[in-house]
Amino acid sequence: MKVHLINPSSVSFGTAVITPRWQYVLAAATPASFGDPLLVDETLSPLDPASIHAGDAVGIGIHTANALRGYEIGKLARERGAFVIFGGIHATLYPEEAIELGGAHSVVKGDGDVAWKRVLADCEKGTPLPLYAGGQIEASEFLPARWDLIPRNRYMWASVQTVRGCPKHCSFCSVWKTDGQRPRQRTADVVIEEIVQLRRLGFRFIALADDNFYPVTLTDLDLATKQKNEARLSELNALRAERFELMARLAQLPDDMVFFTQITMEAAEDTSFLDAMKAARIKGALVGVEAVTPAGLKDVYKDFNLAGDVLIERLKTFRRHGVHVLGSFIFGLPSDRPETFDATAAAAINAELTFAQFVTLSPYPGTVDFARWEKQLGDDPPKIAGVPLTRRWLIPQALRPKLYWDHPVMSAEEIRSRTQGVWDAFYSWGPIWRRSSFIKSSKGRLAFVLISRIYRQMYADTGIATDSARVTWSGRWTRIMAKPCRRLFAGKPMPNLKTPEHAGDFVRLGGWANASKVTAKDLGVCQ
Ligand code: SF4
Asked: What's the CA-to-centroid distance between 126 and ligand 1, angstroms?
């Protein structure tokens, strides 16, 4: 029985930005008796159906955006006589759909790290179960990825996860429901081992693919202190100390390495944390700004973010402490007005964001927004090509609406075209060139310009453009540019690189203001 792990995509670029980590984790979960699994990432190149044979086990990981292509592959694999197993966020939320439409014999709900071995054993016996409850396993059970299987020269960035789960509850996000609100944080030891392995292979750029890299805020510490909850305080301090330990050890890695993560804006309250990030060469972070007005933040249950001038100041703090921000904004919120678009573009520029993304509000399954939207549409929702709108991911790509919500004052087309306008303004050549001025070398500036353009083509033109010529041109352009761009990211392999020493002493002896073990009071946030 051969094992296949397939990452579905209806567009292939030949080169991809980030590795689909789940494939390499499930490869690690595959017992050696089955041999190395065959990994197919369709963002690189499409699946060759002839590679699947009767009796093979085919694992397909899906999120909402690639579910339809995933179901095509599932049906095809089943027709060829293979056992078909679905996993991933979307399959966790809609297991019955993968069975009905994707030819699944089985669905794994939740984390696959532990459950996968059992699924394969059952397939081998010819008796796979319809459902496996992977659940939310503890961080100590997360498996390190099998990076020895990664194809050379295809990916710009590798991805390593340090924490799953997020304590927040934003209305448009499903992470806190699917991954849980309790941060499940891996120890620095195991994370560093994976990163060292990747650098040995020649990866210099690593995405720390976390839900939220700043799982303990000063407010959390403040609250635990005020409640005199010693147990909670000590738990929070331990999590925080582990973060600093990790960053201290990242700082000991070769200085050509660059890390990128995802973090909440609250991290800027804690400049010792930002300084540790800088020293660790975590040079960039995706920050969900979402909206620049208090009303917009309320719309998405993200009132813990700031608005107006304080927002600009908070975002600038990241930059002042050496962390570049990819700001993420949402358009189409009920409180948005035509002037919101220009105000958002201006805020993105004034806040000195290095990159920005502008998405339109879409109801994602598993979110509070989705539940509200589904309820609003009632028992008989409108249909497109016979598919109810509330199962929008099953509508053929070409027929899918660009927006799903009626807006109180703007048409869907107005929101779409104004959003496109903001992308165009932020990523035109002049502003990109000006933003690149912080880079000294001309090679570095060139890399920045190329990456900015590729980023915009991959995410703006292929996502929200309605003009099919523009979409096709963007895909072609990205395919051509991605290859030379990847070379700019690659490093010379360092097969003999040693794992950095434990950094406990460094942190204890005063690294970043003894920041590993503090109370909120120590940091001056409570009296
Ligand atoms: S959007 Fe970010 S902060 Fe909000 S719940 Fe999701 S991961 Fe957490």
From this structure: 40
Largest CA distance in the chain: 68
Nearest atom in ligand 1 to the alpha carbon of residue 173 is 6
Please check whether residue 143 is in contact with residue 25, taking contact to mean a CB–CB distance below 8 angstroms: yes
In this structure, the residue with its CA closest to atom 6 of ligand 1 is 173
To which residue do tokens 């087309």 refer? 413
Residue pair 240/272 in contact by the 8 Å Cβ criterion: no
Residue 53 pLDDT grade (very low, low, confident, very high; cuts 50, 70, 90)? very high
242-263 residues labelled b (16+ CB within 10 A) or e (exposed) = bbbbbbbbbbbbeeebbbbbbb
Q: CA torsion 114→59→395→90, rounded to 10°? A: 0
Distance 103 CA to ligand 1 centre (A): 32
Digit-coded pLDDT (tens) for 333-391: 999 999 999 999 989 988 889 999 999 988 899 999 999 999 999 999 999 999 999 99
CB 25 within 8 A of CB 145: yes
- Quick check: 446 and 487 in contact, CB under 8 A? no
Rounded-to-integer distance, Cα 147 and Cα 72, Å: 28
* 3-state SS track over 352-399: CCCEEEEEECCCCCCCHHHHHHHHHHCCCCCEECCEEHHHHHHCCHHH
Q: pLDDT tens, 462-507?
A: 444 444 554 555 566 566 666 767 777 888 999 999 998 876 655 5
Which of 117-131, 161-175, 200-214, 426-440 has maximum average pLDDT?
Answer: 117-131
Q: What is the CA radius of gyration of the chain?
A: 23
